[in-house]
Amino acid sequence: MASVGGRRRIGSGRDEGTVARWTRTVSDSSIVKTAKQAAGDAANVAKKLAKSTGKAAWIVGTTFLILVVPLIIEMDKEQQLNEIDLQQQSLLGAPPAGTIQK
Protein backbone atom coordinates (compact mmCIF):
# COMPACT_ATOMS: atom_id res chain seq x y z
CA MET A 1 0.00 0.00 0.00
CA ALA A 2 1.50 3.32 -1.06
CA SER A 3 1.10 5.99 1.53
CA VAL A 4 2.41 9.48 1.97
CA GLY A 5 2.43 10.91 5.46
CA GLY A 6 0.09 8.21 6.75
CA ARG A 7 -2.51 8.77 4.02
CA ARG A 8 -3.40 6.53 1.19
CA ARG A 9 -2.88 7.93 -2.32
CA ILE A 10 -6.06 8.02 -4.34
CA GLY A 11 -5.86 6.94 -7.93
CA SER A 12 -2.85 4.66 -7.74
CA GLY A 13 -3.30 1.53 -9.84
CA ARG A 14 -4.00 -1.18 -7.27
CA ASP A 15 -5.42 1.06 -4.57
CA GLU A 16 -8.21 2.34 -6.81
CA GLY A 17 -11.58 2.05 -5.10
CA THR A 18 -14.37 -0.19 -6.23
CA VAL A 19 -16.66 2.72 -7.07
CA ALA A 20 -13.96 4.43 -9.14
CA ARG A 21 -13.25 1.23 -11.08
CA TRP A 22 -16.94 0.63 -11.66
CA THR A 23 -17.49 4.24 -12.79
CA ARG A 24 -14.54 4.05 -15.20
CA THR A 25 -15.76 0.72 -16.55
CA VAL A 26 -19.28 2.00 -17.12
CA SER A 27 -18.15 5.28 -18.71
CA ASP A 28 -15.79 3.39 -21.05
CA SER A 29 -18.49 0.98 -22.22
CA SER A 30 -19.73 1.09 -25.80
CA ILE A 31 -23.34 1.49 -24.68
CA VAL A 32 -22.56 4.73 -22.85
CA LYS A 33 -20.55 6.03 -25.80
CA THR A 34 -23.39 5.19 -28.18
CA ALA A 35 -25.94 6.85 -25.88
CA LYS A 36 -23.80 10.00 -25.64
CA GLN A 37 -23.48 10.10 -29.44
CA ALA A 38 -27.23 9.63 -29.87
CA ALA A 39 -27.97 12.38 -27.35
CA GLY A 40 -25.59 14.73 -29.16
CA ASP A 41 -27.17 13.94 -32.52
CA ALA A 42 -30.66 14.48 -31.10
CA ALA A 43 -29.60 17.84 -29.67
CA ASN A 44 -28.23 18.92 -33.05
CA VAL A 45 -31.43 17.90 -34.82
CA ALA A 46 -33.54 19.72 -32.24
CA LYS A 47 -31.41 22.85 -32.66
CA LYS A 48 -31.77 22.78 -36.45
CA LEU A 49 -35.51 22.16 -36.16
CA ALA A 50 -35.95 25.08 -33.77
CA LYS A 51 -33.96 27.34 -36.08
CA SER A 52 -36.00 26.42 -39.17
CA THR A 53 -39.26 26.69 -37.22
CA GLY A 54 -38.26 30.17 -36.12
CA LYS A 55 -37.56 31.17 -39.70
CA ALA A 56 -40.93 29.81 -40.82
CA ALA A 57 -42.70 31.66 -38.00
CA TRP A 58 -40.96 34.89 -39.04
CA ILE A 59 -42.10 34.46 -42.65
CA VAL A 60 -45.69 33.69 -41.65
CA GLY A 61 -45.78 36.62 -39.21
CA THR A 62 -44.46 39.21 -41.65
CA THR A 63 -46.72 37.93 -44.42
CA PHE A 64 -49.70 38.27 -42.09
CA LEU A 65 -48.71 41.84 -41.21
CA ILE A 66 -48.20 42.84 -44.83
CA LEU A 67 -51.24 41.16 -46.41
CA VAL A 68 -53.92 40.37 -43.85
CA VAL A 69 -53.83 43.32 -41.44
CA PRO A 70 -54.46 45.95 -44.15
CA LEU A 71 -57.34 43.81 -45.46
CA ILE A 72 -58.90 43.67 -42.01
CA ILE A 73 -58.55 47.44 -41.61
CA GLU A 74 -60.17 48.07 -45.01
CA MET A 75 -63.06 45.72 -44.22
CA ASP A 76 -63.61 47.51 -40.91
CA LYS A 77 -63.68 50.91 -42.68
CA GLU A 78 -66.20 49.59 -45.21
CA GLN A 79 -68.43 48.27 -42.43
CA GLN A 80 -68.32 51.61 -40.63
CA LEU A 81 -69.23 53.47 -43.84
CA ASN A 82 -72.19 51.13 -44.41
CA GLU A 83 -73.42 51.76 -40.87
CA ILE A 84 -73.12 55.53 -41.33
CA ASP A 85 -75.06 55.34 -44.60
CA LEU A 86 -77.84 53.36 -42.91
CA GLN A 87 -78.01 55.88 -40.07
CA GLN A 88 -78.19 58.81 -42.49
CA GLN A 89 -80.94 57.12 -44.51
CA SER A 90 -83.00 56.49 -41.40
CA LEU A 91 -82.59 60.12 -40.27
CA LEU A 92 -83.65 61.46 -43.68
CA GLY A 93 -86.73 59.27 -43.77
CA ALA A 94 -85.68 56.95 -46.56
CA PRO A 95 -86.97 53.39 -46.28
CA PRO A 96 -84.48 50.81 -45.07
CA ALA A 97 -82.52 49.15 -47.87
CA GLY A 98 -84.09 45.71 -47.38
CA THR A 99 -87.79 46.72 -47.77
CA ILE A 100 -89.89 46.58 -50.92
CA GLN A 101 -92.04 49.62 -51.88
CA LYS A 102 -95.47 49.26 -53.50
Give Rg in angstroms. 38 Å
Number of helices: 2
Q: What is the element string, with H for helices and E for strands?
A: EEHH
How would you state the average pLDDT, rounded? 82
| Class from helix and strand fractions | mainly alpha
At a glance:
With 102 residues, the chain is mainly α. The protein has helices spanning 18-27, 30-92, and strands spanning 3-4, 7-8.
Structural features, described:
The protein has 102 residues and is mainly alpha-helical. It has two helices and two strands; from the N terminus they run E-E-H-H. The protein has a two-stranded antiparallel sheet. The longest helix has 63 residues, at 30-92. The radius of gyration is 38 Å and the shape is rod-shaped.
List the helices and strands and how they pair.
Blueprint: E1 3-4, E2 7-8, H1 18-27, H2 30-92
Antiparallel strand pairs: 1-2
Main features:
single chain, 102 residues, mainly alpha, two-stranded antiparallel ribbon
